[in-house]
Amino acid sequence: MASFILRRLIQSGIVLLAVAMIAFLMFRFIGDPVSQMVGQETTLAERAELREKLGLNDPVPVQFLRFVGRAATGNFGISYQMGQPVDRLLAERLPATLELSVFAMIIACLIGVPLGVYTGLHPKRWLSRLFLVVSLIGISLPTFFTGIMLILVFGVELGLLSTFGRGETTQIGWWTTGLLSVSGWKSIIMPAFTLGLFQMTFIMRLIRSEMMEVMRTDFIKFARARGISEGKINFGHALRNTLVPVMTIVGMQLGSIIAFGIITESVFQWPGVGLLFLQAISTADIPIMSTYLLLVAVLFVAINLTVDLLYYVIDPRLRADNVARGA
Question: Which residue, 244, 259, 282, sits at the end of a domain?
Fold first, then answer.
């Protein structure tokens, strides 16, 4: 177990270092941040002084090492445009993104898992075919279109839900949440459903295919021959074996939701890190953009590492392989 964790940690460190290098180098060519920070009346001498102050005149390797060294200590520099520490800006907006992402995944699982089980157990029923058609539509529709349609119907026409922002929020330590107010719940439902729609259809189709495959295996036939009830076979045996690979996919999809929720946050003006990243692109705010990409990498690595450990605990074959390798 210890060697397994050590290998994963080393691999995670290499991934984070590579992402840090990509994040640092990629945003060197998107524009001159000094031009975004000063006005037309600023002299060339003042511009040169500002570049020197920001360290933009240093060699690229020196800038990269400084970036990595600061990031390792939690110091991501100062936003060029806002003039505030990047870690403070991210800490203010990260709760909104995590709250939206987790809520979207909960919606996707609560709807996708039962639909996947039903369509897997009854693939030829007309209701199962209807669910598959609807899921195909859900996968095909662009996220921004789904969000705009929900705003038009439930926000503008019916006036039931809030169309932008988080609503009323409550401060709990450094964390802010909108789930303790009615306006907060009205604000999160549409963006969470929009963000989780693709994941919901993906989970449904994945569980359906896994259930259909598991139901054809010999141990299910043996369980039926022993006279075990269909309910226990379906949910005690088939679903349990189905959820092992699904758990890995769901963990990776949670990372995708966090990373690619930018469009949803933009459509609903959700004050998360994705919206902050878009604003940083328009102003060539390199510290925010580099830190955002590094933050996404950290979240992906943390989620995948957690899933690997859970998979290691659940699947005895991995433990057996690890013991054999150690021997």
Answer: 282
